[in-house]
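Aim 2, interim progress: modelling of the L-MYO-inositol-1-phosphate-bound target.
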Amino acid sequence: MAGTEEELLDLAEHTAREAGALARRHRESAVGVVATKSSATDVVTAADTAVEGLVRSRIVAARPDDAILGEEGSHRAGTSGLTWVVDPIDGTVNYLHGIARYATSIAVEDAEGPVVAAVHAPATGETFTARRGHGSWLDGRPIRPTEATELATALVGTGFGYRADRRARQGEVVAAVLPRIADIRRAGAASLDLCDVACGRLDAYFEQGLQPWDLAAGRLVVTEAGGLVSGLAGAAASEALTVAAAPGLHAALVALLETLDAARLG
Ligand code: LIP
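Predicted structure of the complex, ligand included:
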């Protein structure tokens, strides 16, 4: 499998870069909303659809027996036991508003979870990669989380959902967390927030409501860098809640969020 894993990572990285370049070209022309999903603010642009189509075509051409799970609907069954989990443009609202923080996020999963991951940010040109059991890298350089151990001095990322009732609850949680940490960052792209934990730009990150394509690649980048990712009460990270942190901080943040019942979906 080793040779295949290296080939998988190479394909994921090169496809994420090509997809990101297409997203950037679309952004430099005109970007418009072509549909909405869970709410009026959960938008889909023509670029989302075009970029996912490009990723799908590259995967099918190279690995026709693999399954695909894409945010914009390019679901495809497979027979190989591997699934490509794709967010063509993570940070869609940023992208639509011309905020230069969005990414193409690609993970390949087997029955045990993510095997390889690639997160490419076209606006900065940065590419995060990870391979299970082998580490995480930013543009080929190994990355590590911070040595943070105290919530009171921690810089923590978070995000909010597309449903107003869920945001109301998330706002309550953030209001309770904020006095217990140094500061909060809400930057709008979960995959990049997770990668920021992996490389030490953030000490931790938590968010309720992440979809598999938001989470799959960034979770492997964090864990292979030496960070910890979970839900609450020993659960795995999921739509209920994702908590990613430097190893010295993770338990304290989970404990705080458990006291706030932060996973109670709005
Ligand atoms: C986004 C996430 C972000 C979250 C947004 C949205 P999308 O994904 O990356 O962290 O706060 O609500 O889910 O929709 O841009 O792919």
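The longest helix spans residues 2-28. The two ends are 42 Å apart (CA to CA).
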